[in-house]
Amino acid sequence: WISWGKEGFVRATETVQWERGTKVRYNxxxxxxxxxxxxxxxxxxxxxxxDAELATRDWLVGNAISYADFRMATYLPYNDxxxxxxxxxxxxxxxxxxxxxxxxxxxxxxxxxxPPLPPVxx
Length: 122
Prior knowledge:
By secondary structure, the chain is mostly helical. It has seven helices and no strands. The chain has helices at 2-7, 9-25, 33-54, 67-72, 79-82, 90-100, 103-106. Helix 2 packs across helix 3 and helix 3 (33-54) packs across helix 6 (90-100). It is globular and about 40 Å long.
């Protein structure tokens, strides 16, 4: 899962997050919508496979959460900015909801003296 995600699903979600989130948030450049369109196509390609795998199980490896789940979902907590259509894939949406129910995943900065992320201009 780690290699598959790195070259596919994670790469697609990371690319969209970079373009729509990080670049704009930190004034690194403008969002390249052509890059977003290509990465969104890749997202759909890999999301169909991932959704099929998750349709019959809760986690990627065995019956318990693992590093593979966290690694595959690395950029999903920032989907409010990336705006990838996760809800088009019901098994991915359920899996993501299970991850978001973990307090440390939902807000990994609780108790830390970390500044809030700058807003993303729209």
